[in-house]
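Practice problem 4.
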């Protein structure tokens, strides 16, 4: 049997520091042109949510936030700034657990995460960044713009860094998508020994975002936009919310 070489390419796009009101899609096109980067059909743009949140005005000056009584109580238990706790509460639809200086909550978008994904890394001093208002809508808006301007069939994923319940270390996951098969349903396919797969669902969007994180980094890499090339999508386009478990089906609570 002759095997063909398989490969996927990833490359980052140089990017400036984003300000409130910036148009992320326009900035991407500008950087592509300025750096003579040619986009191909099937390319996937993975965009760190932080630059989108900042452009949308979701970066908050903490001293301007008045903490509630509940925020003050949680602040004393966790050692966190009361204003930061209040911002976390503002972004949460419910609290799951407060332990080890971490607030586990259900985000208003439905994700279960630490500190409602409120982040002070890569934000201005005394500021914190929240998730975009509607990442799925934003991904679609950026994707349509890029498709029209570049005249290519492309996909867009918006990513965020999440911790994991039973493993140390954070990984990049998808919180918004456009024209992407978020979950690859492998049920019915055969493995190398002919066994039929019965329950295999692969979180393709998360896997691609995690790969992009290798170039994005977490510190001063200045690489919030990564292009993934050569990735084969075998399942239909689906919504990012297919990655969410219903509350009554979660394995860990």
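Answer key:
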């Amino acid at each position: 049997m002759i095997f063909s070489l398989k490969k996927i390419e990833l490359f980052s796009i140089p990017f400036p520091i984003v300000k409130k009101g910036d148009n992320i899609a326009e900035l991407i096109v500008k950087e592509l042109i300025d750096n003579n980067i040619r986009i191909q059909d099937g390319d996937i743009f993975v965009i760190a949510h932080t630059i989108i949140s900042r452009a949308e005005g979701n970066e908050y000056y903490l001293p301007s936030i008045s903490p509630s009584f509940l925020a003050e109580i949680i602040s004393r238990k966790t050692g966190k700034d009361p204003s930061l706790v209040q911002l976390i509460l503002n972004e949460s639809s419910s609290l799951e657990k407060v332990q080890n200086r971490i607030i586990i909550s259900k985000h208003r978008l439905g994700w279960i995460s630490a500190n409602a994904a409120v982040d002070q890394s890569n934000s201005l001093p005394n500021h914190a960044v929240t998730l975009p208002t509607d990442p799925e809508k934003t991904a679609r808006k950026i994707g349509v713009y890029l498709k029209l301007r570049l005249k290519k069939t492309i996909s867009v994923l918006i990513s965020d860094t999440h911790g994991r319940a039973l493993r140390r270390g954070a990984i990049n996951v998808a919180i918004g998508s456009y024209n992407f098969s978020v979950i690859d349903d492998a049920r019915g396919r055969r493995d190398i020994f002919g066994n039929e797969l019965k329950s295999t669902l692969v979180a393709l969007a998360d896997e691609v975002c995690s790969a992009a994180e290798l170039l994005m980094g977490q510190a001063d890499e200045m690489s919030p936009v990564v292009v993934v090339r050569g990735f084969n999508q075998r399942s239909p386009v689906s919504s990012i919310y297919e990655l969410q478990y219903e509350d009554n089906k979660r394995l860990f609570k």
